[in-house]
Structure formats: C-alpha cells, structure tokens
Amino acid sequence: MPTLHMTTPPAQATPTLVDAPIIIVGSGFAAWQLVKAMRRQNAPQPILLITADDGCDYNKPDLSHIFTRQTKADSMVRADAATLAAELNIEILTQTRVTALEPKQHLLHTASATLRYSKLVLAVGAHSVIPPLPDDAAQHCMTLNSLQDYRQHAARLQQMPSVLIVGGGLIGTELGMDAALAGKQVIMTDLAPRLLARQLPALISQALQQQMQEHGVRFKLGCTLTALQRSDSGEWAITFSDGSRYQAAEILCTAGLRPEITLAQRAGLHTDRGIVTDAYLATSEEDIFALGDCAQVAGEVYAYLQPILLCAAALAKTLLGQPTAVRIPTQSVRVKTPLLPLQIAGTLASHLASEEVGTQQIVLSDPKGMTLWQLDAEQKRCGFVAAGEHQKQAMAMLKMLGQPFEIAPH
C-alpha cells in the first residue's frame, strides 16, 4: 500500500507546470545525495520522491561484510522515510511503482495516481543479472544488491554452512572472502579464468585468489555449470563442465548488475547500456534527467559512489537553474578484501594482454605489499593497483598518473 510521508499538505488540484514539484524516482544513494545537495543550497522547490521500497537510507557497501559482522538488516538503516521527509522538507511516496511516463505532457503514472512534474529525475538504479543456470536453479538462487534483498534472504544467508557463489567480479569476491572469514564453506565459479578479470591484471588477481584459497575458498574458474540438482535435504548437488562435483547449501548469484532502463525505454527515451544522458545528466527528453547506476553519462556508466556523488552535486545546480556539467576525475576504487586490501585506479590491462593496448606493467613489492603500475605507450603512468599496506598511498599515487615512470638510481 503506498505511503505518503509529507511535511506540507498535498495540493488539492493538479498543479500547473510552474507549480509542479521536482519528482525523483528511486531512493538509493544517488537519489538521497541529490536531495541533500539541493537542500544544502537552501532551495525552496517542492520535491517529491517516489520509491518502490520503504525509502530508508542505508550504507550499501556494508552489504559486503554481512557475514563477519553478523549484520541484522534493521541495524543497517540510518534513517527511515518519515525521518528523511521531515529533515529534508520533502514528500516521499513509498511502496509505489512508477508504471509509465508521458514526457511531452510532463506526467508520471503510478498504479493509483497521475502526477505532474516540473522536472523529473530517474534514479532507478540497476538490477542483478542472473545468468542461465541448469535445471530450475535460477528460481532458487539469492541476490544481494540491496537492503531489500538482504531482508528477504537474511536468515538463509546467515544460517547456511556452505554456498556456491556464481560470479567472480567485485561483489562476488568481496562476499566470498567475507563468507569464508566467517567460517562458511565457499565455492566460487565464473566463466572467466580468474577473479576480477575485468578489473585486475593477472598478477594481482592470482595473489588475491591465493589468499582466498588459503582460507578454504574453492574455485571453479573458466568452466560452466552443467547441473544443479536439489536433494530432499535441500542441499545442491553441483556438476561442472569438467566433470567435477561439489555440494552447497545455497546459491548466491553475483554475476553483475544491469542498469534499469525499462521505464525509460517505454517512454521513448534514448537508452544504450544505461539511460543515455549528456554531461548535464539530461536525457533525450526535455526536463527528464538520469542519475546513478541507471545513467550512461557521456558514454560511461558510473557504478561507484564517488562519481555518483559528483553527478548529484552537478545535477542539483542544474535543476536549480545553474546548468553545470559533471566532470569525473580519475579516482581510485577500494576493493573490500581484508586478506589483501586493494585500491585500483586509471586504465589497466586486465583481461586484455598488455601488448594489445601498447603498454607494460611495472611491479614494486616489499614484505608489506605490492604496487603494480600500468604504463602507456609513452611510458607514462596510466593506472595502478596498490595491494596490502601500499594501498594506503593511493591518494599520492593518483597524483602521479600521467607522469613518466622513472626508476630511482641505486
């Protein structure tokens, strides 16, 4: 049932375009950062936020530590919808799904109402990709892309003694390590031949895998699942394409995220990998913007928090009458793998061979950690991975990008 949290009485008549609120669809990190950025500028404009879930604010990266911290879903909530509505002087419609848009008329439809907007921001996020799985396993596997997912699966996740993790990317690796450190038996599988194949050079990927293997994680990489059959006891019998067999209590799918573009497509907005926008976050339709995981900004989809924060700050100014293009500088990404903490930045030859991009890699290591520098064809630093204690120097390393690599004389 839709719930409206408001600080002012709702209008009794359909507002004119001038009087209509700015409507934000979504209540994830991007949406809340946008609202906060607008209110920091003392903007009086009415704002209505519409969300399909309960609208609470939480720290999504904490999902990567639910096993070792034995996290309760409710403990992750920083503020509920009613509190946020009061603090930020906005209206929030929770448990409400937007069903259609009419861009030319500036109208938005839900199951129970038609609303007019002055400007519309789509911050609808991304959904978990579940690859084709043998038998009927896809119906039973869990995903962990939101607090809502965790609420649904918390008991199963915390109680399971063993798990098959399908997907060896960033989230799968973080969760696999956390589950292993919490004493669970972990099997990880991916079509790629190694962990984080899209993000990490082979040397670092192999070092990370070794650390996880030493803590009991078993890997089936570069092969496919051929059978997933559930026994009467509820345990899964797992068969891989190389004939090897395993068992696990649960299946957790971490095969990646796909920007949510369905609503935008139905409304005729230009979409590609995400909802296509220019540097001002404007879509192909007047007064409609996209922000966060769902947006493809000037050709790029930004899934990490810091770029989304910069996008929200720029869009807040644009919505308030000061058109501001977003500029995303090179930033580092922290991989939450405590056995081998990592910081990644810039352009790296990861799953591609170095010679394909005309670069080479320089590795500097000591007992405390390792740094891998990626060099471009002009021998300039274009990216790095810092591992172990070296990752504490990531900010200083960022400033070195673009500079020639010179080996200090002995």
Tell me the total number of β-strands: 28
Radius of gyration: 23 Å
Distinct helical segment count: 8
- Side by side, the strands of the main sheet go 1-6-3-2-10-21
CATH T-level fold name of the largest domain? FAD/NAD(P)-binding domain
CATH class of the largest domain: Alpha Beta
Structure report:
The protein starts with a strand and ends in a 10-residue tail after the last helix. The longest helix has 15 residues, at about 305-320. It has helices at about 30-40, 80-90, 145-160, 170-180, 200-215, 260-265, 305-320, 395-400; strands spanning about 5, 20-25, 45-50, 55-60, 75-80, 90-95, 100, 105-110, 115, 120, 125-130, 160-165, 185-190, 220, 225-230, 235-240, 245-250, 250-255, 255-260, 275, 290, 295, 300, 330-335, 340-345, 360-365, 370-375, 380-390. The radius of gyration is 23 Å and the shape is globular. With about 400 residues, it is of the alpha/beta class. Mean pLDDT is about 90; it is low at about 5-15 and about 350-355. It contains 8 helices and 28 strands. The chain folds into 3 domains: about 5-125 and about 255-320, 3-Layer(bba) Sandwich (FAD/NAD(P)-binding domain), CATH 3.50.50.60; about 135-255, 3-Layer(bba) Sandwich (FAD/NAD(P)-binding domain), CATH 3.50.50; about 340-400, Enolase-like, domain 1 (2-Layer Sandwich), CATH 3.30.390. Helix 1 (about 30-40) packs across helix 7. The strands form 8 sheets. It has a 6-stranded mixed beta sheet. The protein has a 5-stranded antiparallel beta sheet with strand order 24-25-28-27-26, covered by helices on one side. Its EC number is 1.18.1.-. This is NADH:flavorubredoxin reductase NorW. Its main location: cytoplasm.
